[in-house]
Amino acid sequence: MRLLCVYCSSSRDLAPEYYAMAERVGREMVARGWGLVYGGGKAGLMGAVARGVKSVGGHVVGVIPEFMKVRELAYLDADELVTVETMAERKTAMIIRADGFLALPGGIGTLEEIAEVLTLRYLAQLDKPAVFYNQNGFYDDLLRFFERMQAERFRTSGMQGLYSVAATIEDIWANLDTPHSYEADTLWRAKN
User: Fold this and answer.
1) DSSP characters for 102-137?
2) Structural domain count, the chain
3) What are phi and psi of 61, to 5 degrees?
4) pTM of this prediction?
């Protein structure tokens, strides 16, 4: 079974439309043959995605640090709940298990996680698709920032090949099934 790593908010204070979207994404993942690997939480969009997957009989793999389990933040209905010690171990375990990555709206943790995936793709250490779901234009400013990084040569041209952007939930699946290719920076390859 293919596992989709979903990064998203754990906030309990979002507009209801975000939770509804996350649960729908979870249900549709299963319909398209994907299981879930994620941060193992029960709150926010994280919990909504996991519940959506489970509601239609899908497979959920949660990866959670021990300190979060102690705080009773774990989604105990996961099919597999992998306990790690650190946040870094959590990210690594999810990256290894995943066949693709999806960033739903989220905060600084979501940004940090998807940025690591993009960096690994940039350095030719990871060849798995990465998709931003840009619900309500949530990622517009970040995408403009990526354009500025490229325009001012902080990143090489072609950076958009590291990721896809889905404007609708339906677009997510097309982007995962036909991912952008990205050839690692030729200067970096020449030095190594």
Assistant:
1) EE-S--HHHHHHHHHHHHHHHTTS----EEEE-GGG
2) 1
3) -115, 115
4) 0.92
